[in-house]
Design goal:
212 residues; mainly alpha
Amino acid sequence: MQVLALALIALVALLLWSQKAGRARLAWVFKPLAAACFVATGWLAGALETPWGSALFAGLVLAACGDVLLIPKDKRAFLAGLVAFLLGHIGYCVAFAMRGLDLGWTIGAGVAITLVAIPVLRWLWPHVEPKMRVPVACYVLVITTMVALAFGTWAARGDARILVGAVGFYLSDLAVARERFVGASFANRLWGLPLYFGAQLLLAMTPGGGAW
């Protein structure tokens, strides 16, 4: 798995270089390969050996599909990618619930993250076209739930990689939201892409045990 982690780091660096250099077509090479690295990591970590790991693996695969769908600058592809990621988050939600939850931590985290999500939605709302508002609101609801469940399963069963990965995924989506709705900039990708792929890699490693 160390080789896959190093390969992912190299591919993300190449992806950033290609976008900075204006070679957008290379994203069709580097981004799917980077996504394949975290999917392969989940498989090698034994994700398919347990029910909760299988649900997590489904989330990884759906996220990889979302990565590809977000490559073209097309509204229909973006909506399809949004749906793929939403379903991926549902996979993570199921996985964390199956792994075991501390209800108090889950509820407390849910309240805290909702207090963050509300100003995020208020920031985005003026920039989101009306037909995209329901999908975006649903996405925010699901990813908020996913992070709350990550806190809950971390409190109940340990392994900080789940918590760091879930929070990292949440934060990286702010970069995606800003890129798509507020203002396109290489700066969004410069911090958002490494954070996203790093978060997915951490989540992919968790089924194999060896908790932090």
